[in-house]
């Protein structure tokens, strides 16, 4: 008799064919690669746009590429004033202690910070993705699943999943140095989860410096990349009015992701007036567009169009200070493209060193201008970086490596749970 497949559930705020956020794509790529070995489900909300927070998708089930998706209504609490107990803001205290390199030593002695739990819970309950029905489902049906894999600490899903099923939770936090990382309730999550899987060593080190030696078992799992065959370039370039020479940003277009890129790019253009480079931004607008003749917005594009646009870019940009990995980096390097990234992001510094300079980094406007000029004017340098980048991705982010790590940890978690129950 054929053994029944183990059942796992990914838990994430959004999921669908037309959802292209970094964590959501990360989740989708992992989920779809596990369907041959496991019964794979995704528990998610009906929300499509995180800014609007509206329930767009219908409540219920949908099958996407072999994955059963269960959607639940998001029902955040209305805004109300809740006073901080005794005026204490633990998140600010934790951030301050981290900056002084004191948080981890204190966490080794006092790992759980739940003294203002009622107030801290409210910050999750007012979040646009807060879904009591989803969390109730986890609580009620937890015995039907072998492992739960909640994604990204920015939102309530990780906390509530670990709260209801700590011994079955394999957390993928996708964390970086951000306000959310110092949420007091995450001290419960990061010390009670069965396992925590990071994307990079920089992300893992950040967590160790926040949660200390009492953190749950943890290690690197990470993710690979998918490259869709390119669309016809002539058609794509006409459709989006793309220039012959451009540097490219792909991702969510908001202040946090773009940092100072407009200022730096225009300073470059002002200094090198003969440069034909334009800045092309691919992705959804979550801020009013910065308008300039040398800046082009495409909005969302098809995956095949994205591949074509990356292939024809001169240089790929990642100006964000906050990354846990960077999927666009993996895509760009897989396509042998030169990348220029923000050196104030520890993850990008890690990629810079480990890849033998397959990417270049900058820290200031002056750095940006000098490095971009070198990249723009040296085809030899760009080609050399491209060769290194392709090698780096193959050696470190091949799907066989990633999926073997994840399967090993799923099976370890299942065996551990059975052991403590027997």
Q: Describe the largest sheet.
A: 6 strands, parallel
As a percent range, the share of strand residues is 5-15%
Distance between the terminal alpha carbons, to the nearest Å? 24 Å
Strand arrangement, major sheet: 11-10-9-12-13-14
- How would you describe the shape? globular
Strand tally is 14
Mean pLDDT rating: 92
Which spans of ≥5 residues are poorly predicted at pLDDT below 50?
none
Helicity level: 40-55%
Structural class: alpha/beta
C-alpha-based Rg, rounded: 22 Å
Count the helices. How many?
17
What is the quaternary state of this protein? single chain
Features:
alpha/beta, six-stranded parallel sheet, five-stranded mixed sheet, 17 helices, 14 strands, globular
Any overview of this molecule?
The chain is of the alpha/beta class and 422 residues long. It is built from 17 helices and 14 strands. It has helices at residues 22-33, 90-99, 103-109, 117-125, 132-141, 156-164, 186-192, 201-211, 233-239, 255-258, 261-271, 303-311, 327-334, 346-354, 365-377, 379-396, 399-421, and strands spanning 7-11, 39-45, 60-64, 67-72, 147-150, 170-171, 195-198, 218-220, 246-250, 278-282, 295-299, 315-318, 339-342, 359-362. Strand 7 (195-198), helix 8 and strand 8 form a beta-alpha-beta unit. Helix 3 packs across helix 8, helix 11 packs across helix 15 (365-377) and helix 13 packs across helix 16 (379-396). The radius of gyration is 22 Å and the shape is globular. It starts with 6 loop residues before the first strand and ends with a helix. The mean pLDDT is 92.
